[in-house]
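Thanks for the sequence, V.! I ran DUF1349 domain-containing protein right away. Repeating your input here for the record:
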Amino acid sequence: MLIQSNRYRSSSYSGMYIAFVLSFTTICIADVKAQSLSKFEADAGGESRISVFDSFDGKAVVKWDVVRPDATHASLVDHPGKLTIKTQRGSIHRKEKTSTYGDGIQAKNIYLINNPAAKEADFVVTTRVSGFTPKERFQQAGLIFYNDDDNYFKWGYEFDWKSNGGQKFCVLTENDAVSRFEYLNSPTGLNDYWLRVIKRGDVYECSYSIDGKYFDVLCERKWSSGAPAKIGLIAKNGGSSVAAELDAQFEFFSFQSPLPRDLDALR
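Predicted structure:
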């Protein structure tokens, strides 16, 4: 990470880089494989900025809170430089603990961080998923904004089980175990793509990219109070007992708040 500033002081704590900016600053991520978790704070009268980035380059730098961890289905070495979550049977959809279809099995290896922004703050979250083309019912991988198993917002790429073929991006909101989801018109057959969610108030804008530069916005949805407790990554097979286990390779995770000024130029 390259930081250019007229004047700043910084400290490093076991993988965490913190820079307190005292005057005008230009921040540039020069190498997306550089491990970093950074916080930037403007001078008096300016706005504070928070940036969280994990490249998964050999180890997870960010302190992840993993819901129902299963080390047999998550790795930082199977595909070096990536967090690999192998999909497996398990769901958090509606009343999954009493579901006969899923035998009450809950989703594992949901990688989360505590939301580092203030409750009212807007933010943007981005990840890249590679080597993952879901081909069976309920196979999926993507971003999740999570309060608990019954209250969350999910944006990802899934097998299109409604059409019994192909893949589509899917948005899902769940409140008090009542969920609404929608498959959106999108390219099929992708195996390398970026996912991005921009939160403005209680509205979540969902987009994807095939090059990491230009993002196509597919939908906007309202959810909850607009302040998720946790944010992170998910890959699973839902309640299906027959879907094959696939490697979902997450290349990086990025969180920024408030919103960068150049977001609209990337559409």
